[in-house]
Design brief:
This protein is α/β, with parallel strands linked by helices. It has two domains: 238 residues, TIM Barrel (Alpha-Beta Barrel); 92 residues, Up-down Bundle (Chorismate Mutase Domain, subunit A), CATH 1.20.59.10. It contains 14 helices and eight strands. The protein has an eight-stranded parallel β-barrel with strand order 1-2-3-4-5-6-7-8, surrounded by six helices. Strand 1, helix 2 and strand 2 form a beta-alpha-beta unit. Helix 6 packs parallel to helix 7 and helix 12 crosses helix 14. It is elongated, with a radius of gyration of 24 Å. It binds phosphoenolpyruvate (PEP) and manganese (II) ion. Manganese (II) ion binds next to loops.
Length: 363
Amino acid sequence: METKTKQATFKTNWLRKTEVPVVIAGPCSAESEEQVFETCRKIAATGKVDILRAGIWKPRTRPGTFEGIGIKGLPWMRQMKIETGLPVTVEVAKAGHVEAALEFDIDILWVGARTTVNPFAVQEIAEAVRGVNVPILVKNPINPDLALWLGAIERFERVGIEKIGAIHRGFSNSTEKIYRNRPQWQMAIDFMAKRPELPMICDPSHICGNRHMLKAVAQKGVDLNYDGLMIESHRDPDNAWSDAKQQITPQVLGEMITSMKLRYGLEDDPTVQQSLNFMRQEINQIDEDLINLLGERMAIARQIGEYKKQNNMTILQPKRWKEILDKAQIKGEANRLSEDFMSKLLRAIHDESIDQQENIMEG
Ligand code: PEP
Ligand code: MN
């Protein structure tokens, strides 16, 4: 990755991806002056990072853990900004944090997932930045609620903030086993569809919660056309005071970014566009056929509904439902469709059938 291009990207387009994603990196938490200095110096030396991050105040899920070094850490970040020439960002969760961060020339403020969920807290931060045109990044709320995420962004727009971006860090779920925070990519994609002009950053560190999946998730963000990545990096990850399992050394970070497959902006190339359009037309046709077929399927479901009504039968026939699911799984496997997808698809179709039959029963 070319450092020069990336620097220009950041300056001319507020966090917009042109050729290479913007990279924000730094420790989960600022712990000591030496830790911040050594980590940030090493990160800057990779030449792969555009913005330095560190948590100064840490909203922790449970009490009794490290809650951040506080104001004391701000001069360390300012020093790293001066020394490396890179902009710096910290998390703010209340008005006092904003005032302190601005006093120490922090360039960008970010709102954490545990704050985005609370409209009062977001509004308090918004009031604190009213009239100060500081760039703001808003992480998704911990629960998968698109309106809450968009609403937080709107609160900053209403106080006149012009440079706003979103960070996708995944959604917590007590049954989740693979990720620390399930990505639910579709929610970020829906966000991008609603607000295409806003930059979207992927935070693989908090999505994964571990190191081994980090690169794959970062790559997925790049493949989905995210504008940038926020990745936690620490001089000594195993001994980090917070999020030790997911942090990587600056060296590993540099190697990871270098080895990522970048998707250059070939979208504007006419030949590429033509082939893509051709394939998309096929997709459009198939989608149309699928919808027509679903319509036919529902028409038959309604007929069955009438029949069940006449014969006083219940809508749900569990044996029949199991038979449909089992058959679909076998067919799905033969067509390279995952078990999870087949089950979601069939459930959605079945739900619609039940609704339609219910209308018949009631009508
Ligand atoms: C962080 O970035 O260190 C952090 C606390 O993240 P999140 O708000 O996504 O949990
Ligand atoms: Mn963290």
